[in-house]
Design brief:
The chain is an alpha/beta fold and 846 residues long. Helix content is 48%, strand content 14%. Strand 21, helix 24 and strand 22 form a beta-alpha-beta unit. Keywords: Carbohydrate metabolism, Glycogen metabolism, Glycosyltransferase, Phosphoprotein, Pyridoxal phosphate, Transferase.
């Protein structure tokens, strides 16, 4: 190994082959943008030189004096430079080519750590590792230093990250637009078994992956009033006279495709005050008032999803949504398109994908731009707008379909409310003409709801103002048409389509599960990394004893990796020889962590009561990972009870060798990348008809975990692909759920009629897991027995029966491994690359 420490200073002299000095510099970026110069071929020597230059002249430290964070930032910026030429070249080609772009509008992006993904995309993993080794540094230490930006709440944000990764890999022009939250999804800790939310200070040590561009700032207006006037051509117009405004500052991040020299852009907006500091007030001694405007403005991008149980919280959420779409539309129209571009042709250059209802205010915003600022006639503007948007609905829960009170909308965005009223008036006239005399249909389809308060239904506005509306799994899309938006799908049957979600194989197989990746590549080649359908070639290997043995060894190695991590990270010492039964997802009643808890307590009760002998039990380690929204009380009570049950079970010698429960805090993408490859059993147990799709179910199946689940979301498609023999189905299907609901669901009757269920719930209620205090479990138990809105008690027995089938299957380890291989082989359909192909063909025409 070269002794770098003898000369660790990176000289700024002319090119040299001495690894202690800066060698051939990266090319002049202005030349790259014109395609005149290409990035140099990466070598270990060049990488060392670039790394030392960043350390010396970027961080201002010598290698011998540098901290691990100095080294991480220098490494990240070195890798970033190797992507820079492709990023600038991609942008130049997009502008010159006049190609149609996808503007992906999403309030969430859960990107995960970016260093490993960037090294993979640029094929620099080995070179970077060797270069750092030359400097006496273990690259694994620097990977661990990266703080994951928690700019999302769960599946929605992770899906957005997968999609922009796939679009870059497929060389599809795309700009991802969102918010640069100063504090992302809270960092979860536990105190006395209860969730405590701690700010997620992901920017505390700097973010080397972003580029601020304050010169491209956008002013965003709020409040005020509107007034009518007559323009120069004698037309009646409206003018918005805002009451206050903020600035949006763009921060750019590169989104590299997989080894294809395409690098797209993620543009996140940060809010700043237009007048941040008042010197006169400051000099008068009122220091807080002097910066009040700055504090008020920066609140907009301060926190992901501020608690909205208060009027102030609701107002801040609407401010966030309008802020980022106003910035994004302005950015594309004014800064991305050619200056002389005719906006009549805007649909030929952009399609804005609305990722759920959060960005839907973009529809009236584009109308405002075209009509009020660009002077278009209303009908022309509306025709353009409807072609420029497509809407993805991610939910079946009525409460997740956003509505905003007319009062709040009028206060914050008075011109947009006027535009929405006119959109609605024109649309309802169309409906009245098509369905003469059907007053109830007209009321049902109105964007404006009259009860319980006058409100704007954003899902309706999205449907009316978009060219296409899609669900995210076959079942979800059918229910979206039949149950959520039936009047609209009847009116526009061709507008509705399905695009089943997918996950990127680069991060969730190649990076997360390198041992499995190597095994698969040795068997079928590496083409699967960009064509996951090639996993089908693995199917014959399920009958190869040698391959099954290797596959089982990979699974065990992944378990060891996870157990070592959890011991170091959380102090959890888990048994090595048990089935790993995993349920990780957002904590919500419809996802039914409560049902999983009932299963654990039932198993525990059977053992300690003597009804079940430990010799007959298949040992299991149960792992949960979930965050509950800060204001979601019953979800937080569920977390408390899971932790309380875990504490009791893990301390009980009677079940020591057969049961353990773990709930590591702060589940995120980084932990998922270790947990998912280790899992044996994937819990996908939502009430049928409530989960839109799920993507965790796909990640688990692709990494060799078998699924126990209901016929819900993408579970339906997973089961169809892997086969009934390789999936543990239980519970009611959606029609049965609706039939039971129509009859009148009575959870108490299930409690009274099922002896095991009654014993399980009674044990929870007794205070056995809460130090003898019955009050601590009372709300959870009362909710199950009297309300149980997502019918956990109705599905309880079917679930336990399915778990018995799981035990039976797991006892034959070789047969289980064969089933797991078939799950991997048959789920290549669930790639986000395939999802993006479906969007291109069915929705975007890109």
């Amino acid at each position: 190994m070269t002794d770098v420490s003898k000369n660790e200073y990176a000289s700024d002299e002319s090119p040299t082959t001495d690894v202690h000095r800066v060698g051939p510099t990266l090319p002049v970026l202005s030349d790259i943008a014109t395609g005149a110069v290409q990035s140099p071929t990466p070598t270990v020597e060049r990488f060392v030189n670039h790394f030392l230059r960043e350390l010396n002249f970027g961080q201002g430290v010598l290698l011998s004096r540098s901290t691990i964070n100095d080294q991480y930032i220098a490494l990240a910026k070195t890798v970033r430079k190797y992507m820079m030429a492709d990023w600038l070249d991609t942008g130049a080609k997009r502008r010159e080519g006049g190609t149609k772009t996808v503007g992906y509008l999403s309030a969430e992006y859960l990107l995960g750590r970016q260093l490993s993904n960037a090294l993979l995309a640029t094929d620099l993993q080995d070179i970077a590792a060797d270069a750092l080794r030359e400097c006496g540094i273990d690259i694994a230490d620097l990977r661990a230093q990266e703080i994951e930006p928690g700019l999302g709440n769960g599946g929605l944000g992770r899906l957005a990250a997968c999609f922009i990764d796939s679009l870059a890999t497929m060389d599809v022009p795309c700009i991802g637009y969102g918010i640069r939250y100063e504090y992302g999804i809270f960092r979860q800790t536990f105190e006395d078994n209860r969730q405590v939310e701690v700010p997620d200070s992901w920017l505390s040590l700097g973010s080397p992956w972003e580029f601020p561009h304050p010169e491209r700032q956008v002013r965003v207006d709020f409040g005020g009033r509107t007034e009518q006037y007559t323009d120069d051509e004698g037309r009646e117009r409206s003018r918005w006279i805002p009451g206050w405004n903020v600035l949006g500052i763009p921060y750019h991040q590169m989104v590299p495709g997989f080894r294809n020299h395409t690098v797209n852009t993620l543009r996140l907006w940060s809010a700043k005050a237009t007048q941040a500091f008042d010197l006169q007030i400051f000099n008068s001694g009122d220091y807080a008032e002097a910066v009040r405007a700055q504090t008020f403005a920066e609140n907009i991008s301060k926190v992901l999803y501020p608690e909205d149980s208060t009027p102030q919280g609701k107002e801040l959420r609407l401010q966030q949504q309008y802020f980022f779409v106003a910035c994004s539309l302005h950015d594309f129209i004014e800064n991305t398109l050619p200056q002389d571009f005719d906006l009549h042709h805007l649909p030929e250059r952009i399609v804005f994908q609305l990722n759920d209802t959060h960005p839907v205010i973009a529809i009236p915003e584009l109308m405002r731009i075209l009509v009020d600022i660009k002077g278009f006639d209303w009908d022309d503007a509306w025709d353009i707008t409807r072609q420029c948007f497509a809407y993805t609905c991610h939910t079946l829960l009525p409460e997740a379909l956003e509505v905003w009170s007319v009062e709040l909308m009028g206060k914050l965005l008075p011109r947009h409310l006027e535009i929405i009223y006119r959109i609605n008036k024109n649309f309802l006239e169309e409906v009245a003409e098509a369905f003469a005399g059907d007053e109830m249909r007209i009321r049902r389809m109105s964007i404006i709801s009259e009860h319980p308060e006058r409100s704007v239904r954003m899902a309706y506005l999205a449907t009316i103002g978009s060219s296409k509306v899609n669900g995210v799994a076959e079942l979800h899309s059918q229910l979206l048409r039949d149950k959520v938006l039936p009047d609209f799908s009847g009116y526009w049957p061709d507008k509705f389509t399905n695009v089943t979600n997918g996950v990127t194989p680069r991060r969730f197989v190649f990076l997360a599960n390198r041992k499995l990746s190597d095994l698969v590549t040795d068997a079928i080649g590496d083409g699967w990394v960009t064509d996951l359908e090639q996993f089908k070639k693995l199917e014959p290997f399920a009958d190869d004893p040698n391959f099954r043995q290797q596959f089982a060894q990979v699974k065990q190695a992944n378990k060891e990796r996870l157990y070592n991590l959890l011991k170091a990270r959380d102090g959890l010492d888990l048994p090595r020889d048990a089935m790993l039964d995993v349920m990780v997802k957002r904590l919500h009643e419809y996802k039914r962590q409560s049902l999983k808890l009932l299963h654990i307590v039932s198993m525990y009760d059977g053992i300690i009561s003597g009804r079940v002998s430990t010799e007959s039990v298949v040992p299991r380690t149960f792992v949960f990972g979930a965050k509950a929204a800060p204001g979601y009380h019953i979800a937080k009570e569920t977390i408390f009870l899971i932790n309380s049950v875990a504490q009791t079970i893990n301390a009980d010698e009677r079940v020591k060798n057969v049961m353990s429960v773990a709930f590591p805090a702060n589940y995120n993408v980084t932990l998922a990348e270790k947990l998912i490859p280790a899992a044996d059993l994937s819990e996908q147990i939502s009430l049928a008809g409530k989960e839109a799709s799920g993507t965790g179910n796909m990640k688990f199946a692709l990494n060799g975990a078998l699924t126990i689940g209901t016929d819900d979301g993408a579970n339906v498609e997973i089961r169809e692909l892997v086969g009934d023999d390789n999936f543990f189905l239980f519970g009611m299907d959606e029609p049965q759920v609706e039939e039971l609901r129509a009859k009148g669901y009575d959870p108490e009757s299930y409690y009274q009629s099922n002896e095991n269920l009654r014993a399980t719930i009674d044990l929870l209620a007794s205070g056995h897991f809460t130090g003898g205090d019955r009050r601590l479990a009372a709300q959870f138990v009362d909710n199950l027995r009297t309300q149980d809105p997502f019918m956990a008690l109705a599905d309880y027995q079917s679930y336990l029966d399915a778990q018995a089938r799981v035990d039976e299957a797991y006892r034959d380890s070789d047969a289980w491994t064969r089933m797991a291989i078939l799950n991997v082989a048959r789920t290549g359909f669930f790639s986000s690359d395939r999802s993006m192909r479906d969007y291109r063909e069915r929705i975007w025409n890109v």
